[in-house]
């Protein structure tokens, strides 16, 4: 069993254990929440946080980078933002708020694999329907609506998705 992150147009993927995915998303959340300024940047990080296996289920936290909430017009800027987030994560931004020390070597390998899938993603392969479905609240069960105004966890400073903070959920 494993959580696959993939880029289906390029037929590439990589796999993480459940614990590996949680740490990967947590370090992206720590760095990304700190760096996100625009609504789009906040959406990208919040979307990642929703892939918490706590709610997705063990082995079901994976995703396709084509389904991320990209905006085709500003795609290159969004990619650059994400590269900065990965660099921050590699510099251990916010790691001191965690109750454990992530395996740095493993985290770096997963971040490198992820950003490579993002780097090679072409704008024409963005799945625009995925974003429309995600952002259109009429289709979203009230239980699964994210809180308004991008609130953050007081302990970790990570954006709260509809089921809270990915780092707090990881107990
Ligand atoms: Zn937290």
Return residue spans where pLDDT drops below 50 for at least 5 consecutive residues: none
Return the domain count: 1
Number of helices: 7
Question: Which distinct ligands sit in these coordinates?
Answer: zinc ion
Number of strands: 3
Strand numbers in spatial order across the main sheet:
2-1-3
Task: Look at the structure and give the mean pLDDT.
Answer: 94
- The helix/strand order is EEHHHEHHHH
Percent of residues in helical segments? Answer: 40-55%
Distance between the termini: 21 Å
Secondary structure class reads mainly alpha
Rg, Å, rounded: 15 Å
- Summarize the biggest pleated sheet: 3 strands, mixed
Shape by Cα distribution? globular
Question: What is the beta-strand fraction?
Answer: 5-15%
Summary tags:
171 residues, 7% strand, mainly alpha, binds zinc ion
Descriptive notes:
The protein is mainly alpha-helical and 171 residues long. The chain is built from 7 helices and 3 strands; from the N terminus they run ββαααβαααα. The chain has one domain. A 3-stranded mixed β-sheet has the order 2-1-3. Helix 1 packs antiparallel against helix 2 (39-49). It is globular, with a radius of gyration of 15 Å. It starts with a strand and ends with a helix. Zinc ion binds next to helix 7.
